[in-house]
Records
---
Amino acid sequence: MRFGIAARLGIVLALSGMLSAGVTAVQAQRASETLLVDSARTELLTSTRVLSRRITQVREDISRTLLALARHPAALAALDSDDPQAATQLATLFALPMEANRAYFQIRLIDAADNGLERVRIDRDDDTLVRVGGDALQEKGHYPYVFDTLALAPGEVYMSRVGINRERGSHAALGQPAVQLATPVVDAEGKPRGVIVGSVDLNGVFALLAADLPADFRLYLANSAGDFLIHPDPARTFGFDKGRRVRLQDEFPAVQAVIEGRAGESMIDSDAGEHAPTPLLAAFIAARAQLRTDEGAFILGLARPRATVLAELDPLRDIMLQIVIGMCLTGILLAAILARAITHPIEVLGAAVQNFSGNGQAPALPVERQDEIGALARRFAELRTQIGQQMAELEHRRSELEHLARHDALTGLPNRALFDDRMAVALAAARREQGRLALLFVDVDQFKPINDRLGHVVGDRVLEAVATRIRQCIRESDTAARIGGDEFVVLLPGIASAEDARRVADKIRAAIDRPFTIDGDELAVSVSMGLAHYPDDGADATTLARHADTAMYRDKAEGKARRHA
Amino acid sequence: MLRRLCLRRLPSLVLALALSGTACAAEVLRVLSWPGYADADVVQAFEARTGARVEVTLVDSDETLWQKVTAHDAADYDVFAVNTAELQRYIDRGLVVPIDPAALPNLAAQLPRFRDPTTLPGTTRDDRLFAIPYAYAEMGLIYDRRQFEAPPQSIAALWDARLRGKVLIYNSGSHNFSLAAQMLGKGSPFHLDAADWAPAVEHLVELRRNLLTFYVQPEESARLFLSRGAALMFANYGTQQLQLLRAAGADVGYAIPREGALAWLDCWVVTRGARNRALALAWIDHLLGTGPAHVLDARHGLNNTRDPAPHQAETDRLVWLEPVEDVERRNLLWERILSGDRATRVLAP
């Protein structure tokens, strides 16, 4: 029962501790997740904007380089005179930015005449720069980066569409995603004479820009139609170049609004379709280049797996878990203490009940407590006191009754029953020890006339007084009993000889022979006595009693004779 | 084939359609089709007429078609559609069987140019008819009416120096060498002899020098034509490009050059594994009827073989595409030409 309450209480307290800690932890977790996801989205959007600005900066850097080259006198000189010295000087100038910036695949000077023949051309080939010359120079007049650039005003920059470079002989650029930036070279009359074209490695630029993005960031770039130009899976890029469309809006339907120009940017939770197993958080923005191009807007995007964003919560989750476990353990401990606090007084009360009837030391009850248990203990203590008193009284009555049952009510001497017991005990002892004992019958002479003459009250007083005197004449180990109206008997165990018994009898007779004073009247009383000895006069109580009785009647007769004499 | 692009807007997944409510004991016809060739209403009409059930599987590329037909030696399908150039390898492998024209009453309603197998070299082999023409499109010339007094008569117009920087062509090695072969006056533009390569390359380098630029997509061609003030365009996508330009407000015309316009022709063929050839032929005959033919041009913008095409004269010459002698060489040389190499370098080994 005690275990039951403690266990139940413990379970309830521990469970409520766990529940409250758990609910708190779950709520905190949810709130943190929402906060974290929101801030991750914002961070993605910010990073995308920053990336977009950096792309613009890179493009502007390249544009400035190309403009500087287009304005250099060597450019016009190389076109004008087909001057080998000017061409060589220009080639050296082309190599400088290409050495500094690996994003350049090529820098070329293309003539507006001769079908767009290349005049000066530096290609990147693996780690080296190659100057292409002679027969290997190609006619590029049919490419938009030539004819569209020639239509530009001085100082303007053209940007081609982003595509896979299929121009044979272009060394490192062949088969690579590239974009051409170009600006016209104009003569003194403002007539376009050629173009400076920089071929830029799309992946190289983005690899550089994305280098300091966190490892779990995924970069996407799409053209204005949504065709992927950059994708974590390179196989999905430039699908249009392979005769199929792999589009941003098919993978991220929510970006449709950005592609259609209805929104400038979009923050996305992508958790459907192919992203169902690993949901992504993503941000996309439309970036429009402020120059002459057919490309329209680019859609730039960054994404992170939701799981890695939420992984930042792991330490918090661990702490939460520790708190929950701590609170559970505390709950269990508190429950144990509380259970003990409640069950201990109950246990004390129980022990008190158990010891109630026995003589064991009753434990102290917690009566000083001011709570319900204190009240219970106080009531119980009262009850215990009451019951104790009643028990004591009952015991007293019982011993009184027992005394009455074995003693004579008038004289207080043992009655026949008690006397018979003691006689049997004394006889057994004498037999065992081969000792002796004596039985003395004492009968008050002429008692009836006293009763008749002086009344029962006086008669009783006489019997009391006789009993008192007999008691005064015997040892503590002897027993005097009243066995009839005026008959007494004395058991003298452990006597040494018959003479000892005779002396006791004489002593009694002498004591009774002295006059009694009752209510101021002197009264003379005599007794007759008969002695029987064990083992001389009999071996059992009946024989001894008969012998003593006979002796007493003989004494009575002799006494009557003495008085008459 | 690139002409398929105009049909790719249709769902391209391979799907099997079970459209008929006829009893399960009904005969089943297994059709392998391009999108637009076996629309649900066309299929239902056939099922209602014959009581057979049609299972349509769609393909969206020549490669897929080849894989499906060859997978179990043509045993998985009864009838399929294929162009005359592609068809040749199916005949070579014996995957298709000859067709008896007598089983196709609707053949009589076809235009004369489709009734005479001799003008359709790809459809016959050893005088046996293997394929029934069904849909086609030709690659004509689109010109700006304001820049032409009369429609161009010849593909030579592409080389016309007066149009320098105003010509658009399609970026394809095969087709462009066929154009060069036509310029060389070859009997078949698909077979260049060893001696033809150098002059063909010369022609194409000259063509390149005459170009504004080249295109890949029909939309791209329309945009370039309009924004750069082009005058003449080789229309790989035919009337589809014409429609795009007209929709954009361009005053353009369409001409079939006297050398003949390259044209693709899709035909229906019966497989070696056909379970019921009569039913397969009934399907082909059904498609030659007025209803399906009308669906083809009205719904999908393709020419059918019954009605005269709107931008052609009966006498216009069409040159049905055939496999070229060496597609890899054509493509390699074209890439060099496109990249701006001069003729000597293009022909370098």
---
Amino acid sequence: MTNKVAIIGVGHSRFGDRSDVNLSELSFEAVHPSIENLGLTAKDIPYMAVGSMGVWSEEPLPAVVIAEYCGLTGAGLVRCEAACASGSAAAFNAYSAIRSGQTDTALVVGIEKMRQIDTPTVLEMIGRAGYYLWEFENFGMTFPAYYAVHAVQHMKKYGTTEEDLAMVAVKNHKYGAMNPLAHLRHEISVEKVLNSSVIAWPLKLYDCCPITDGAAAVLLASEEKVKELGVEAPVWIESMGYSSDTANLSKRENYVGLDASVKASRMAYEQADISSKEVDVASVHDCFTIAEIMAYEDLGFCEKGEGASMILEGETEVGGRIPVNVDGGLKAKGHPIGTTGVSMLAELTKQLREEIKPRSRQAPMKNYTALAHNTGGTGHYCYVTILRR
Amino acid sequence: MDKPAVLKSARTLQITYNLPISRTSKFWEGLKKGKVYATTCQKCEKLHFPPVADCGDCGSSEMKWTELDGTGELVTFTQVLVKPASFNEEPNYIVAIAQLKDGVRALAWLTGVKRKDVQIGMKVKLVAKVFSEGRVSYEFIPL
């Protein structure tokens, strides 16, 4: 017998260059709102899992520092690492603790302060996140380069164009401009994307997510605790699928998709007993424009090779067949590495509660079902979470 | 908006890792002699590149060294223009992944060709590379 797990509170800092606050202060912006409106205090939280890479900021023990600053000292603590999926790894850790009956309440925090060091060093740290010895030491792979080798093969095999990729950035900037918490709050044009400087060919500056500071938090509780607290609109975690892939990119079968995304999503669909057709809104891991197109295909939103036509036909806009990244996505909202998975859960919880403002980026609900797709590295890790209200 | 106030930390770290290569030393020695070695598992016969001392497929640690022919076809590539901090002094470099006739794939720089002339499917060869300062690596060259 396992417990059902719900998200009962969310908090989300403004994303961007947050040099105005330190790590602890930034965490407070997310942690406090996730707890406060339920009549709970930080002292009522027995367990906290933190998703963070943390190599760009000074605190090596973020969970301990956050717990002290936010009043959770004494709670069980852990920091989880799954690269860009660290937030989902932390969520899985807390979710499992509740499902198993170990605890009835657990806080999940994602946090990253990436702008405390220079950009080439950030590129270095993320570039090392693969198989350091074989793909970085001598060859200097970067995060954009890992995705660029996928773009090149996808373009060759399926005829995807640089303009198609640019369309993803245009869409996500459109929604980012509507999201007061987003890092990049301006619309862009296809021409602006195509004319931006090349980072790792064929990916250009506007194909890439920015380097962002930000924090997000979700409070999880068991069904019994939900009843005890009288939570009005709990959002249930129906399933969490997970998978991984080789550290060496050279050991992959192909570079037109991420196998870990395929496997994690199939596991999530099966455990929630739904198909991709029932998803009303999704947040997918668009660290680069090609990543969003591959995600459409890997998650089964369309057939392999048809991702570009989904973006061209507006199927992933609000009002389309399945709205994707209508908070701006990693591309425009920003991608504070360990925060992203938690940010997705916070956004989708608000979507499912139909609380999104402005209404122009609220996805219409038919099945009250949402999907979060969070990869770490270049599909080195993957978590797919299905939420339902 | 005013520039946020920051305190420049007075504590600076410089980290250089020592990379243990005892169990794959023949590979690194081979590069100095112009050879690129892989390892073959003596038990399940799987060919491993990059070379390994232990077989993750069958669990055996009995490996033998196999010199690669190195010829193959390019599977995908990119050119890195915005570089990591420790590669800042390098000119823009092309990174390629190729399928070797030997039966493994490799990732390395592709040199001696302009990015505009690089094509998926082009014939390349993986060769050892010794830099003037004595550092060893390997690279693809067009055939």
